[in-house]
């Protein structure tokens, strides 16, 4: 049975998964990510979370579980059993055993700051954590964090597995196939945002990109307007890491979890935005990626009903097609949302 919690209470972030156990002052969940896949084990201090029962998000994930859309490509049952077998009375004892399994963890402090890094040392009062920086490398000097300031832990995750392999493996980057694509977003919030993926094909006006998610898996296929591209980067520390992560998934048969189609014709946005179909696009003028139902196209204006909280908005908005930077041709999110809306 799936349960949903909000944690930390003051931040209103929600997590959903299977409850593993309640241990003293902590609850543990095997959590499900946005792709409806088991990827993590989270622990929360009991004074920092509440159990939710009536959120629409819970209904969405329970529906996916009933439809057998909940995936377990990483043999997570083994990780769950491994965690259940641990014997501990306090955080020091737990983290000592976790360090032997995989020393990479994430933790959240009382100030609602989350740190990901490698456990360097443990004593009776503190954890010494070498943080992982923006280049996915270890910082030289560890953070010293008292146990009583920790309100949440993430352990045994797929992200941590990949990071640990990245940090302990001799890397090769000469066969890199990925690029970063930077767009002309008009708002400051997305100034440093970009797509990471493989260019499948292109012409003078558009390119087709197989985009990756944060774990280095195939997330979706995007038709991108070249007039909105500011630059394309083929060499960066970020690309080195994501190439490594993508290769990990290719070797472990976890790259394209829902068998997304990747070969599409290079046509215009209008050819893809058909009335009464689910569509998603990236708007260069607004700070969001819209997903919803196309109601029609009038001249160069798109009539569109957004999906908000898994429900179709009653009001259609008008969006200039000239402002569209990309259109999502397929994605894990589209497949899951379409099945839910058609239930």
The count of β-strands is 21
How big a fraction of the residues is strand?
Answer: 35-45%
Largest sheet: 11 strands, antiparallel
Alpha-carbon distance between the two ends: 20 Å
Instruction: Give helix % range.
Output: 10-25%
**CATH architectural designation of the largest domain:** Roll
List descriptors.
ten-stranded antiparallel beta sheet, eleven-stranded antiparallel beta sheet, SH3 type barrels, 21% helix, 343 residues, 2 domains, alpha+beta
Walk me through what this model shows.
- There is one protein chain.
- With about 350 residues, this protein is α+β, with helices and mostly antiparallel strands.
- The protein has 2 domains: about 170 residues, SH3 type barrels (Roll), CATH 2.30.30; about 160 residues, SH3 type barrels (Roll).
- The strands form 2 sheets. Strands 11, 12, 13, 14, 15, 16, 17, 18, 19, 20 and 21 form an 11-stranded antiparallel sheet that branches.
- The radius of gyration is 22 Å and the shape is globular.
- The mean pLDDT is about 90.
């Amino acid at each position: 049975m799936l349960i949903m919690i909000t944690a930390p209470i003051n931040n209103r972030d929600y997590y959903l998964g299977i409850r593993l156990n309640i241990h003293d002052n902590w609850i543990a969940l095997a959590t499900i990510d946005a792709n409806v896949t088991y990827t993590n084990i989270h622990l929360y201090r009991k004074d920092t979370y509440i159990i939710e029962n009536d959120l629409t998000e819970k209904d969405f994930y329970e529906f996916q579980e009933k439809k057998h859309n909940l995936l377990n490509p990483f043999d997570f049952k083994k990780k769950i059993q491994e965690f259940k077998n641990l014997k501990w009375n306090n955080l020091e004892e737990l983290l000592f055993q976790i360090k032997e399994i995989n020393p990479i963890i994430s933790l959240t402090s009382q100030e609602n700051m989350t740190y990901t890094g490698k456990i360097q040392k443990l004593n009776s009062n503190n954890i010494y954590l070498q943080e992982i920086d923006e280049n996915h490398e270890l910082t030289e000097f560890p953070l010293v964090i008292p146990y009583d300031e920790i309100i949440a832990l993430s352990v045994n995750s797929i992200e941590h597995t990949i990071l640990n392999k990245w940090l302990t493996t001799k890397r090769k980057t000469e066969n890199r196939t990925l690029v970063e694509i930077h767009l002309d977003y008009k708002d400051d919030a997305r100034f440093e945002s970009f797509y990471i993926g493989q260019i499948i094909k292109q012409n003078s006006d558009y390119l087709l990109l197989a985009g990756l998610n944060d774990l280095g898996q195939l997330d979706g296929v995007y038709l991108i307007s070249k007039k909105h591209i500011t630059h394309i980067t083929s060499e960066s520390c970020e690309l080195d890491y994501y190439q490594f992560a993508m290769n990990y998934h290719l070797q472990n048969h976890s790259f394209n979890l829902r068998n997304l189609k990747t070969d599409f014709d290079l046509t215009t946005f209008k050819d893809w935005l058909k009335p009464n179909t689910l569509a998603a696009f990236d708007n260069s003028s607004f700070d969001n990626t819209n997903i919803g139902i196309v109601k029609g196209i009038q001249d160069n204006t798109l009539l569109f009903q957004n999906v908000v909280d898994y429900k179709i908005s009653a009001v259609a908005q008008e969006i200039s097609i000239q402002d569209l930077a990309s259109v999502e041709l397929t994605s894990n999110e589209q497949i899951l949302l379409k099945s839910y809306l058609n239930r």
